Amino acid sequence: MYLKFYDNPDESEYLPLLERSLCDDGSLRRCVSDIIENVRVRGDEALREYEERFDSSRLGSFHVTEKEFDEAEASVPRELKSAIERAYGNILAFHEAQKSNGECVETMKGVKCWRKVVPISKVGLYVPGGTAPLFSTVLMLAIPAKAAGCPSVTLATPAKEGTVNPAVLYCARLCGVDNVIKLGGAQAIAAMAYGTQSISKVDKIFGPGSRYVTFAKSIVSSFCAIDMLAGPSEVMVVCDKSSDPVYVACDLLSQAEHGCDSQVILMIRAGDGKEARDVYERIEQALSAQIGILGRHEYMLPSLSHSAAIAVYDDVKLMKIVNEYAPEHLILNCRNYHDLVHMVESAGSVFLGPYSPESAGDYASGTNHTLPTSAWAHSSSGVSLDSFVKKITVQELTKEGLSSLGGTIMRMAEAEDLMAHSQAVKVRLG
Amino acid sequence: MYLKFYDNPDESEYLPLLERSLCDDGSLRRCVSDIIENVRVRGDEALREYEERFDSSRLGSFHVTEKEFDEAEASVPRELKSAIERAYGNILAFHEAQKSNGECVETMKGVKCWRKVVPISKVGLYVPGGTAPLFSTVLMLAIPAKAAGCPSVTLATPAKEGTVNPAVLYCARLCGVDNVIKLGGAQAIAAMAYGTQSISKVDKIFGPGSRYVTFAKSIVSSFCAIDMLAGPSEVMVVCDKSSDPVYVACDLLSQAEHGCDSQVILMIRAGDGKEARDVYERIEQALSAQIGILGRHEYMLPSLSHSAAIAVYDDVKLMKIVNEYAPEHLILNCRNYHDLVHMVESAGSVFLGPYSPESAGDYASGTNHTLPTSAWAHSSSGVSLDSFVKKITVQELTKEGLSSLGGTIMRMAEAEDLMAHSQAVKVRLG
Questions:
Q1: N or C: which end of chain A has fewer CB within 10 A?
Q2: Averaged over A239-266, what is the pLDDT?
Q3: How large is the average pLDDT for residues A194-202?
Q4: Whole-angstrom Cα distance, residue B103 to residue B99?
Q5: Which chain B residues are within 8 Å of A217, Cβ to Cβ?
Q6: Which distant-in-sequence residues (6+ apart) come within 8 Å of A375 by Cβ?
Q7: What DSSP string runs through B323-367?
Q8: Mean of the pLDDT values across residues B205-227?
Q9: Rounded distance, CA A4 to CA B45, Å?
Q10: Closest CB from A100, A120, A408 relative to B364
């Protein structure tokens, strides 16, 4: 048995299953605070020490050179390049469609208000090294940054023994990243948030990472914008007796292989307990068979051990649980998915029907894979073009416009006891 | 002399003038942390104690009753009601125009990606009491919340001796706020972030407030979304010899009257030093005359004392300083404002020409007055309809779509060493 089975649980039983483990670890927080403070005060010198300690690299410069880019490009296999370019095209197309010029409204005659859309000048992207070289994250962050028109895009990524993964560099160059720096962990976040002698301060920091990186983003967020606080990755898969159990099993495993703390939840929509149990058992068999074929058991098995299968017998309860959980990834692989998608209120990204595995969105369909985890989908969206722009409101009133609106402004200002606000109108209409 | 005059300063001289005072006060932070922890653990009991201590109120219930709404409505003067209704219409029109249905892109044949726009379920709005009863803030937060379709809108505001300002209640009812609770300060933020026996937890907290409120928002932001961290209010006014000095003076003062820590910066675009000095002196005279007429000197004078007038002799340098400062409010009241607005990269809201005082946007033109301060305009926008919605990405691939894209996905997944991601495609195409 891989997933523990819960048959139509009530709220008191299922709510605890939906909880994410909070890891506000005091010693981790102190360690990260120290790193940040050290980088703030000592700059490059501190960075050099950390790189030597954590990544065994002695860096002359943090900046990747053109020669390194060329060598990386030469070493990425042709087939992988084509795959990356196809993904690039789809991701660009989806994010380009998110562009907006801002709307202009004449709220009254002579009172024109609009929004001017401006890219953020300097953005910093963090791309983790970790258990797998995540070059896809380069695409997911750098494509919208450049599509938005950000003039300065810096990318920080750890360089084990001084070397950055070639596919990461290939993607960075393809996307037009301006500057790649060899830095990982909390020290990379601190360097981008404060700036050092050799690294420019950025206006906003994006990207996933270890708990160190997330803590660091949390700390600097009181003075530097961040995209979101990313926790462990999650998927919720909704299936029924019509779903192919092998598809379901592979979708669950493709989340579980991310890391020990990944969470997968299987929702079984059934007519009754017998049907639910039957679906569950077929998926368990498929899990067993697939685990036999696949590796990364050191991540998959711990991850599955704190995951669950929940059977429910009506759509309202099903979607209540889905929206309560607010999964990062939601796969609706069941008969009536076209109806259910209208009932989705909280999720990062939704995958519909039998032929939309999460991996499509992780890599290449066009949507972004930088998504809200840990129930942040209740309030937040994934990264999009919007994340890289500011919308500045602008207004122009004519004398006529101010004449019509002036009485309203003055009355409200005076009722708030702000007489200079009123006076600014009065002197113009005098 | 009200504003200190700087004639064409170089960077080393003007950068310090643009700095905002940071107030990361350790004792304040500890006090706010204690309040938050107390509310989290003891709920309503803690809230009652704070209300008694800070607002001299002994509350039976925190919730404003229908009777209180009726009484408030009866006591707001008819003329103020009309003014509020006109502002309501303009603000609604501007924010309604920001609605979007999300775009749908078929990135390849059989690969359809779109965004589903969903309002945030439960939002909490904070409306400060403080030196002036800010009912306009109710309009600025509740109108976009309701226009976005948020089903549950809670508003917290301090009740001095148990009573909420009638105009605040009138606006709340007009906007369709679901629930007004009598609570101010850090304890109000804590109550909305965690929920208590009688107050529901919200998904996102909006609104300005004292330093206590801002610290509280900063602390809870590691688990509850917030709109922004608001510092003291600011205006930058750009003028030249064509500007009416009285208009300029009143705009400066309408910022300065907000509070002792408000910052006003006057930029004088001139042809030479003599012209700059001349413009400066006329504005100083106008300031003197207007201060003589207006009250709230206890806020205005300290605020002006840490403000500045900066003369520059070319547009490039002018706009460099403007964008470096990233003012919450930017008034371009000079001859060539139509050219300059295209050079604005960082500002909260921009006011163009001689007839667009900041007070128009503060109250009634339609734009939002909840704006990024303290140079957050480098990375962030003011509150808009977007602040109250989530954009959930959705995708549906047909079997044909997955066949075309499958090779790309598998190649990338395998290069990232994530074989289950690849397997999820392979089993579907087998």
A1: C
A2: 95
A3: 97
A4: 12
A5: none
A6: A20, A325, A326, A346
A7: HHH--SEEEEESTTHHHHGGG--S-SEEEESTT--HHHHHHTSSS
A8: 94
A9: 39
A10: A408
Residue A340 — very low, low, confident or very high, per pLDDT cuts 50/70/90? very high
pLDDT, residue A76, reads 96
> Which residues in chain A are contacts of B258 at CB distance < 8 A?
418
Whole-number pLDDT of residue B24: 64
Helix (H, G, I), strand (E, B) or coil at A394: strand
Contacting residues for B90 by C-beta, under 8 A, at least 6 apart: A107, A108, A111, A405, B364, B365, B366
- Residue B22 Cα, gap to closest chain A Cα (Å): 10
Number of A:B CB contacts under 8 A? 403
Between chains, do B296 and A381 touch, taking CB under 8 Å as contact?
Answer: no
Task: State the residue for tokens 């295209």.
Answer: B342
Give the mean model confidence (pLDDT) for residues A365-383. Answer: 97
Between chains, do B121 and A384 touch, taking CB under 8 Å as contact? no
Site from B392, B410, B427 to mutate, A interface, most A CB atoms within 10 angstroms: B392
Q: Report chain A's mean pLDDT, rounded to a whole number.
A: 95
Residue B232 CB partners (closer than 8 Å, separation 6+)? B20, B21, B258, B259, B261, B262, B263, B373, B374
Q: Give the chain B residue nearest A351 (alpha carbons).
A: B395
With beta carbons less than 8 A apart as the criterion, state whether B373 and B360 touch: no
Q: What is the ipTM of this complex?
A: 0.96
Which of A224, A346, A418 is the closest to B257 by Cβ? A418
| Residue B130, pLDDT above cutoff 80 | no
Report whether B274 contacts B8 (CB < 8 A): no
3-state secondary structure of A78: helix
Does residue B358 sit at the A interface (CB-CB below 8 Å)? yes
pLDDT of res. A29: 86
Rounded to 10 deg, the angle between the A78-96 and A166-175 helix axes is 40
| pLDDT per residue as tens digits for the range B271-295 | 999 999 999 999 999 999 999 999 8
Residue B102 in tokens: 């999300």
Residue A162: per-residue pLDDT = 85
C-beta separation of B132 from B29 below 8 A: no
